[in-house]
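Bug report (template v2)

What were you trying to do?
Predict the complex of my protein with 1,3-dihydroxyacetonephosphate.

What happened?
Run completed; filing so the output is reviewed.

Input:
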Amino acid sequence: MRNKLVAGNWKMFGSRAMTRSLVAGLAAEFADGAPCEIAVCPPFPYLAEACRGAEETPVTVGAQDVSDQDEGAFTGQVSGAMLAEIGCRYAIVGHSERRSLNGEGDALVAAKFIAAQRHGLTPILCVGESLEEREAERTEEVVGRQVRAVLAAAGIEAFGRAVIAYEPIWAIGTGRTASPEQAQAVHAFIRGLLRAENANIADLIKVLYGGSVKSANAAEIFAMPDVDGGLVGGASLEVEGFASICRA
Ligand code: 13P
């Protein structure tokens, strides 16, 4: 049985004060034990604050990105070693906003996935199709390509220390979620891809759903057999809402 994980991707929202109060709020909410694993992924300047606040609480911390490089003349980039040193546990790689707005392709995403693991971080690999791709019935082709690119570069064993997040682009920030059945179908497809390589790893890996997850829809999506929790954007910016998604 896989434990569920609910991770909050704050994107470029928040402040230092909000980081402090959100982490403290979640810690207080789940002081007697959390119903699932809970992670917060604030912007880089607030990671250290979040890590300090999360110490000895059920809350863990992740970064929204990580460099594929370890050290050097890479202005603006942050290495996995730096993130691990301050106490981060996760790094999101391949978020659709970075793929589309920052031009990150499958090869770079795979390199970031490998770099995260090199420094002991667990990558949260995001995959997902656009509305146009879904309507053209290309979802499996696109998601399959995104997963296989990392599989080819990192090897199946690496997926034993990774999380995958299925985030259909048309559901991100739109208020339009995938139906539980749509999510389940893609999650099962992803797990099936991995099962062809290693059944044990396929059974153990967490596959999260992301895209307009709210307290009102989390329970029905998380109830699907291949959905192991969520990667939550907007609804992770406020303690009550995020805590109720964690309880779902
Ligand atoms: P929303 O929950 O705001 O739709 O964002 C989803 C997402 O992109 C999380 O990474």
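What did the reviewer find?
Residues 9, 95, 167, 172-173, 210-213, 231-235 surround 1,3-dihydroxyacetonephosphate (CB under 6 Å). The mean pLDDT is 97.
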